[in-house]
């Protein structure tokens, strides 16, 4: 009889019904965020392979070098071509004949 009265009182108590789960969510979320944000700092500490680092340094592409490549290009004769959707055939959409393409590949 005593346990029945206690459980009924606990069900009616709004603090225990709504407040405690909310506090658990906030505290548990802070611990979860700490773990996920720690991954970011651990990834920075990882050393890159020296061979890969050499390749990355050799392939330096700057904004200025890319600008020099396209500086003299004219964009007056461009054509707006829509890309294919996943269910469409890209060759038919762009006006290419798929039969000609099949004969070229074989």
Automatic annotation (TrEMBL):
Keywords: Membrane, Mitochondrion, Mitochondrion inner membrane, Transmembrane, Transmembrane helix. Pfam families: COX16. Residues 76-106 are annotated as: Disordered. It comes from Phyllostomus discolor. GO terms for cellular component: mitochondrial inner membrane. Signal peptide: none annotated. This is Cytochrome c oxidase assembly protein COX16 homolog, mitochondrial. Residues 76-88 have a biased composition (Basic and acidic residues). One of its GO terms (biological process) is mitochondrial respiratory chain complex IV assembly. It is found in: Mitochondrion inner membrane. InterPro entries: Cyt_c_Oxase_assmbl_COX16. The chain crosses the membrane at residues 15-33. Belongs to the COX16 family. It is a single-pass membrane protein. The gene is LOC114492388.
């Amino acid at each position: 009889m005593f346990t029945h009265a206690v459980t009924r009182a606990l069900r009616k108590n709004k603090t225990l019904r709504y407040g405690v789960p909310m506090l658990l969510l906030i505290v548990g979320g802070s611990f979860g965020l700490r773990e996920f944000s720690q991954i970011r700092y651990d990834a920075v500490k990882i050393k890159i392979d020296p061979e890969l680092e050499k390749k990355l340094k050799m392939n330096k592409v700057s904004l200025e070098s890319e600008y020099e490549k396209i500086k003299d290009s004219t964009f007056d004769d461009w054509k707006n071509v829509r890309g294919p959707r996943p269910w469409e055939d890209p060759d038919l959409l762009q006006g290419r004949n798929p039969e000609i393409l099949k004969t070229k590949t074989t």
